[in-house]
Amino acid sequence: MKLKVEEEMVVEMSSLTNMSMLTVRTLCVFSRYGENHIVSKYSIKDYVWQRPVTDNNLTHTIHKCRNVLKESKTEFDVVNIRGFGYCLMNTNLAGHNIG
Asked: What is the pLDDT of residues 40-54, one digit of tens each?
């Protein structure tokens, strides 16, 4: 998957289409932190919505991100790290250290 971000705008997305802006912004958050880094729920909500939202909003958007990644046949998935947040992981490297 290639996701290029410049000044908070997605300028290049290879094989990712028909996404809502919330999904794009959520993927941008993971792109900024990089793979295998935990991103807190608060950080995602703050960047994507810039206002208070329920956990259900976040869960729904994460589900959409997972679907986009799966449909794009990338080697990445968004994994829930219980009690901490979410992490963009390379499924080929599952089991390696997260941090």
From this structure: 999 999 999 999 999
Domain that residue 79 falls in: 2-95
CATH of the domain at 60: 1.10.10.10
Q: Which residue has the tokens 């300028």?
A: 11
pLDDT for the residue 20: 87
Give dist(CA 21, CA 14) in Å, integer. 16
Paired residues of 10 in beta bridges: 5
Residue 90 pairs in a beta bridge with 76
Output b/e per residue, 41-75; b: 16+ Cβ within 10 A. Answer: eeebbeebeeeeeeeeebeebbebbeebbeeeebe
